């Protein structure tokens, strides 16, 4: 089975090769699970690595969003990902009120 996408491709002999984008996107994610991406050589090893890394997904997402600016829209994205639904709704309401006040000025 040959698989080719923007993250990796597999060869006829079963070897897997990460693209530059794949290494950029997945290295930190796998590192959260203690997985060295350079050790992943086959598609089945890749699937196993994804399964092992899955419990770390939200932690990884937090680390990726921590470098984004603090503004209303980005804060709402963070809230949607990491807050409880009630906390998120409160932040949405606050954001909407702030936006409507800005329109009145």
How are the strands of the biggest sheet laid out side by side?
Answer: 1-2
Range of strand content: 5-15%
Q: What is the number of E strands?
A: 2
Order of helices and strands: EEHHHHH
Tell me the distance between the termini.
Answer: 61 Å
Question: How many distinct helices?
Answer: 5
Largest sheet: 2 strands, antiparallel
**Helix amount, in percent?**
55-70%
Query: Structural class, from secondary structure content?
Result: mainly alpha
Keyphrases for this structure?
mainly alpha, 105 residues, two-stranded antiparallel ribbon
Can you tell me about this structure?
By secondary structure, the protein is mostly helical. The chain has two domains: 8-56, no CATH class; 68-104, no CATH class. The chain has five helices and two strands; from the N terminus they run ββααααα. It has a two-stranded antiparallel sheet with strand order 1-2. Helix 1 packs across helix 2 and helix 4 packs antiparallel against helix 5. It is elongated, with a radius of gyration of 19 Å. The mean pLDDT is 85.
Short description:
The protein has five helices and two strands, in the order ββααααα. The chain has helices at residues 20-32, 43-53, 57-65, 72-82, 85-104, and strands at residues 8-10, 16-18.
């Amino acid at each position: 089975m040959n698989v080719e996408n923007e993250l990796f491709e597999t060869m006829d002999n079963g070897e897997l090769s990460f693209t530059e984008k794949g290494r950029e996107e997945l290295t930190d994610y796998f590192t959260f699970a203690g997985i060295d991406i350079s050790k992943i050589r086959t598609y089945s090893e890749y699937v196993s690595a994804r399964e092992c890394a899955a419990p770390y997904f939200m932690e990884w997402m937090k680390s990726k969003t921590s470098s984004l600016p603090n503004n209303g829209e980005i804060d709402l994205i963070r809230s949607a990902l990491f807050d409880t639904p009630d906390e998120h709704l409160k932040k949405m309401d606050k954001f909407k009120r702030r936006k409507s006040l800005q329109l009145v000025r």
